[in-house]
Design a protein that fits this description.
about 60% helix, alpha+beta, 7 helices, elongated, 4 strands
Length: about 180
């Protein structure tokens, strides 16, 4: 009798478990799906969390800012995008300068060359064009996102302006493999 009771108890437990499993679903409830759709993404789809990116034709810089005023937020986000683009491009140009020097060109180690290159690099920030601005209302203010772009052709022109008066430096550096890898020919 005791074994029959255990058997019936086990059978009942299996039936309850099976009924529970068959009634459950792997799909989220409709309410949670609706909630997910109604909450906007934290960042726009075009925003680069790294702040910088490039492709074969252009450079992109992104920035964000928060302010109590929407115009100030937008202007600050644009400025941050320009800074991010200029800083990242400046780092790449510094790597190209190191390669230029390692390849045997002594000009790359000259103090005036280094200063000229850094000044020329800052011209890329102002040469960049505002591409996208998005301003969102947040609690107690606004958050703006911005993207600037700079074509490689415009970057080359800006850098060349920075080397004005130093044709030997420009000719050597702009013809280097490191420079061509960043800006192109």
């Amino acid at each position: 009798m005791a074994s029959t009771s255990r058997w019936l108890l086990s059978l009942s437990a299996v039936c309850v478990f099976t009924a529970f499993i068959s009634c459950s679903s792997t799909q989220p409830a409709a309410d949670s799906a609706q909630t997910e759709r109604s909450v906007p993404a934290l960042y726009p789809g075009w925003y680069l969390s790294s702040g910088f990116e490039s492709d074969s034709l252009q450079f992109f810089g992104t920035g964000t800012s928060i302010s109590g005023d929407s115009l100030t937020a937008a202007q600050s986000a644009e400025q941050q995008a320009r800074i991010n683009l200029g800083k990242a491009l400046g780092n790449q140009l510094e790597e190209a300068r190191a390669t230029f020097t390692e390849s045997g060109n002594a000009d790359g180690n000259q103090k005036d060359f280094i200063l000229i290159l850094r000044e020329a690099g800052t011209l890329t920030e102002t040469a960049a064009e505002l591409d996208v601005v998005e301003v969102r209302s947040i609690r107690n203010g606004f958050r703006a996102f911005s993207r600037v772009t700079l074509t490689k052709a415009e970057a080359r022109k800006a850098l060349e302006r920075g080397f004005t008066g130093h044709p030997r430096y420009w000719s050597g550096f702009s013809g280097s493999d490191g420079f061509k890898a960043i800006i192109g020919e």
